[in-house]
Amino acid sequence: MCVPGCLEAIVRGSRRGLLAPPEPTGGRPSDRPGALRSFSRVVDLTHAVGPDFPSFDPRPSLITETVATLRRDGYNMRRWHLIEHTGTHLDAPIHYADDGTSADCLEIEDLVAPLVVVDIAARAQDNPDTQLTPDDLLAFEVAHGPIPAHSCVAMCSGWDRLVTSPRFCNADEQGLMHFPSFHPDAAALLIERDVRGLAVDTLSLDHGVSRDFPTHRARLPTGRWGLEAVANLGALPPVGATIVVGGPKIEGATGGPARVLALV
Amino acid sequence: MCVPGCLEAIVRGSRRGLLAPPEPTGGRPSDRPGALRSFSRVVDLTHAVGPDFPSFDPRPSLITETVATLRRDGYNMRRWHLIEHTGTHLDAPIHYADDGTSADCLEIEDLVAPLVVVDIAARAQDNPDTQLTPDDLLAFEVAHGPIPAHSCVAMCSGWDRLVTSPRFCNADEQGLMHFPSFHPDAAALLIERDVRGLAVDTLSLDHGVSRDFPTHRARLPTGRWGLEAVANLGALPPVGATIVVGGPKIEGATGGPARVLALV
């Protein structure tokens, strides 16, 4: 199922120079591939998922079926009937590009990446329609240094705490959802920075009210990936953690529930 | 869904002293919880899983169903109909104990663990019915030092290379499978060592010809977990790597496909 990645190669060759790049040295020394990374604790960035987990899709996102029991069969076992984009989950490039990489074919080195956490929780508390903007990213770089290439940039809006509440989707009377996400211009700047992954603690890489999903459409066809409905970003430092994306290795997957950890 | 873990607590309180314990210091200094761990490369220990992945179960272990397409809906998305114990996967304690911990409730610190790799591949090549014995473990400790508490011990039999061949299940004319695994006495010794996880590159924590699954029955009800059908163990050092078990966080899961990585 692994597509050779022609589109990715073309984009990789042409993505330099549109906006101010980071320092030519390519970020902090410890962020270079093959560099030594260290950690002493683990933070689980994954929500537990049940049949009632919030979803965009009107179809049931998870149904579990018992297929064996200890009493009858000697062991317990179930079958899941599961929509790929359920819970804390990965969006693979193929989700928005027929020739895009599927979840099983993403480079493993990309799935263990420096994690940058940009906190807009104070603003999001007052305005659920706020977005993470290029100005937020530039201010972040002034405070914390260049956002490294091949990293994952996460938006911390504090929305994970609402996951069991109707405020997580925050739908209005017309059914339009209101929650924060990346502004498309911020997503474009992070392509310039050669960032591999975006993560959000809300339901979508795109703004709740979006009807046309510009961040999905701009990023995923370039071979990049996303994580949606991530938890516990507020427990992490702005820089210095490593994200581990335990995404599914099911052939052809457009994404899927992922066990996402931070090594701090 | 998280069971308080009474059984685990009882076992934890009574498991000392049945067999010779490791050094009282509890293994290498770097293996203590909270110790600094370092790595510079990542090895994917996960097989890609399709509908034909080998299985014990006669039921289809994975069926994928397209529910949205880019052309029709603006994005690609599928539904999986998936048996929990498919592909490279986790066995949670509840798989063999109704009051056991489900996959979503395993301690995250236990799922990022020192990885010990015991290689019996040369012997397995000549004899598919061989088992990893207590003598193998004691010889390993003479060569490499005490097996640390809270680690994961993996059997490397070289069986992962057979995954696309009938030799992976290696069923005889009566349908009995022939592949290596842990001898029950080795599994018991590793409970003594307070090892949290066992991993095998074959289809079961139990020997292929086993009818009564003694290793499953002895280990899982003590709150420990297993990994089956792991790949690429031959690329790892005997000691020094860290395993990351990206197991599913689906409520009540008896196990499930896991993205398993080694940090080296």
Produce a short descriptive summary.
The structure is a homodimer of 264-residue chains. By secondary structure, chain A is α/β, with parallel strands linked by helices.
Layout of helices and strands:
2 copies of one chain form a homodimer.
Chain A: H1 6-14, E1 37-39, E2 42-44, E3 62-68, H2 70-73, E4 77-83, E5 89-91, E6 112-119, H3 121-126, E7 131-132, H4 134-144, E8 152-156, E9 181-182, H5 184-192, E10 197-200, H6 214-219, E11 225-228, E12 241-246, E13 255-257, E14 259-263
Parallel strand pairs in A: 6-8, 7-9, 8-10, 10-11
Antiparallel strand pairs in A: 2-14, 3-4, 5-11, 5-13, 6-12, 12-14
Helix pairs in contact in A: 4-5
Give the uncertain stretches of chain A in residue-range form.
3-30
**Tally of strands of chain A:** 14
In the sheet with the most strands of chain A, the strands line up as 2-14-12-6-8-10-11-5-13
Largest interface: A-B, 67 and 67 residues
Describe the structure in your own words:
The structure is a homodimer of 264-residue chains. In chain A, strand 10 (197-200), helix 6 (214-219) and strand 11 (225-228) form a beta-alpha-beta unit. Chain A is α/β, with parallel strands linked by helices. Chain A has six helices and 14 strands. Mean pLDDT of chain A is 89; it is low at 3-30. Chain A has one domain: 3-Layer(bba) Sandwich (Glucose Oxidase, domain 1). The two termini of chain A are 34 Å apart. In chain A, the strands form three sheets. A nine-stranded mixed beta sheet of chain A has the order 2-14-12-6-8-10-11-5-13. Chain A has a two-stranded antiparallel ribbon with strand order 3-4. Helix content of chain A is 17%, strand content 23%. Strand 4 (77-83) of chain A pairs antiparallel with strand 4 (77-83) of chain B, so a sheet runs across the interface.
